[in-house]
Amino acid sequence: MLDIKLLDIIACPLCKGKLSYKKNSNELICKFDHLAYPVIDGIPALLKVKARTISSDEE
User: Fold this and answer.
1) Is 58 part of any domain?
2) Which of 40, 47, 51, 57 is 20 to 30 Å from 11 by CA-CA measure?
């Protein structure tokens, strides 16, 4: 589980936009780039190679 306080200081590594946390999938979502970054053992994996592309339905 992610410490929600991190959302105030982290940003998407590609566009520097705000990320939102999706608890049920344990991912950080960038709505601008349509990417989902996994949170592994409470640590956000903010690497493009770890991200998956998401559809607008998943956002």
Assistant:
1) no
2) 57
Tally the domains of the chain: 1
Residue 10: Cβ-neighbour burial (10 angstroms; 0-12, 13-18, 19+): middle
Give the per-residue pLDDT at 57: 79
State the pLDDT at residue 59. Answer: 72
Q: CB count, 10 Å around CB of 18?
A: 14
pTM score of the predicted model = 0.91
For residue 46, what is the domain's CATH number?
2.20.25.10
- Residue pair 59/31 in contact (Cβ under 8 Å)? The answer is yes
Is the CB of residue 37 less than 8 Å from the CB of residue 28? Answer: yes
